[in-house]
Amino acid sequence: MAKVNVGDAAPDFELPGTGGKSYRLSEYRGRRVILAFYPGDFTAVCTKQFCAYRDEGERLDKLGAQVLGISPQSVDSHERFSKEKRLNVPLLADEDKEVAAAYGVLAGPIVRRAIFIVDEQGVIRHRKVTLAGLSFEGVDDLEGALAALS
Questions:
Q1: What are the residues whose beta carbons fall under 8 Å from the beta carbon of 89, sequence distance 6 or more?
Q2: Residue 126: alpha-carbon gap to chain centroid
Q3: Are 60 and 88 in contact (CB under 8 A)?
Q4: What stretch of H or E contains 60?
Q5: Contact (CB, 8 A) for 122 and 25
Q6: Active-site residue list
Q7: pLDDT digits 0-9 by tens, 44-87
Q8: pTM value surpassing 0.85
Q9: Are 71 and 112 a contacting pair, CB within 8 Å?
Q10: Which residues are paired to 81 by β-bridges?
């Protein structure tokens, strides 16, 4: 399994996601992107994470970075999760887990909870991967990580 570190070029990808869109990382060049890998829709910690992003939507918008959630569930699952929880972050379907593998966040069959911040040039500037996935990076954490890059 590959592992990308701070200073590495972020592996490009294209994945289907919520809203009937396809998302390609390279289309965000010139803008910071926060990739939020998570194990699964409707799970307890994942629900808390994305509901926290929803509840702090104004602060999230002010970060000046596009947040993208990535997990191995289908677009249909993501659409149900997003609709039921009224989420404000696009959720991308990495069903074959190739993107998770490229970023080094697979632990056997499980996608680890992880945050990567990709800068305007497509370089990884922040990486945090949890071992157990029982906690998540909230908006305060994301603000702090972005501020440290300025």
A1: 36, 50, 53, 54, 60, 67, 68, 69
A2: 12
A3: yes
A4: helix 57-61
A5: yes
A6: 46
A7: 999 999 999 999 988 888 888 999 999 999 999 999 999 999 99
A8: yes
A9: no
A10: none
